[in-house]
Specification:
Radius of gyration of chain B: 14 Å
Distance between the termini of chain A: 37 Å
Helix content of chain B: under 10%
Oligomer: heterodimer
Number of strands of chain A: 11
Shape of chain A: globular
Number of helices of chain A: 0
Largest sheet of chain B: 6 strands, mixed
Strand content of chain A: over 45%
Number of helices of chain B: 0
Largest sheet of chain A: 7 strands, mixed
Order of helices and strands of chain A: EEEEEEEEEEE
Structural class of chain B: mainly beta
Helix content of chain A: under 10%
Shape of chain B: globular
Largest interface: A-B, 23 and 24 residues
Chain lengths: 114, 111
């Protein structure tokens, strides 16, 4: 079974802190995604990566950056956390762009910024 | 800008009822429409639809796509409390790798 894991289920940080959210997949998938999910807004794409060291902005990249140094790991970075970044963060990966039915999600990280 | 709209936003029904969830979309270069079920944590895949008029079925769940009218429906018959979840609709288009999600429909089944 494909497994997508995220480093923390719950995280509490203070305004201005640098925050790292880690995502690891174990099936050699090329494409990885970071979403945030907020009530009434659904899932919104922050960034995605289609290969090592490659990244593309999604719909709401402001305030975030990403890093993909190894194929299995995709990190989301909040350089200076703000309260409006309190949200559920979901990581996902797919094998190829032809197989969206193979998109797998991690369990999510609920981040609270105080 | 690509847009996916789901309705209703929430729905409360009694166990045994049949429900229909709606998803309409406006995207350029449509490729496929996907349905996910999300309980307490990560969304899990239900269906992927690419062609109009072909019903996909899995147990009590079924879905169909209308590419002319740009919508899809997800039907759940003989609902059970385990069907309580948020149901997400997403659309993929050719030319990029990302999915555009709707806001979801929160379904609650009362015993």
């Amino acid at each position: 079974d494909v497994k997508v894991t995220q480093s923390s289920r719950y995280l509490v940080k203070r305004t201005g802190e640098k925050v790292f959210l880690e995502c690891v997949q174990d099936m050699d998938h090329e494409n990885m995604f970071w979403y945030r999910q907020d009530p009434g807004l659904g899932l919104r794409l922050i960034y995605f990566s289609y290969d090592v060291k490659m990244k593309e902005k999604g719909d709401i990249p402001e305030g975030y950056s990403v890093s993909r140094e190894k194929k299995e790991r995709f990190s989301l970075i909040l350089e200076s956390a703000s309260t409006n970044q309190t949200s559920m963060y979901l990581c996902a990966s797919i094998e190829t762009s032809l197989n969206y039915n193979e998109q797998f999600f991690g369990p999510g990280t609920r981040l609270t910024v105080l | 800008e690509d847009k996916v709209v789901q309705s209703p936003l929430s729905l409360v029904v009694h166990e045994g009822d049949t429900v229909t969830l709606n998803c309409s979309y406006e995207v350029t270069n449509f490729r496929s429409l996907l349905w996910y079920k999300q309980e307490k944590k990560a969304p899990t895949f239900l269906f992927m639809l690419t062609s109009s008029g072909i019903e996909k079925k899995s147990g009590r769940l079924s879905s169909i796509l209308d590419k002319k009218e740009l919508f899809s429906i997800l039907n759940i018959t003989a609902t059970q409390t385990g069907d309580s979840a948020v149901y997400l609709c997403a659309v993929a288009n050719f030319g990029n790798e990302k999915l555009t999600f709707g806001t979801g429909t929160r379904l609650t089944i009362i015993p």
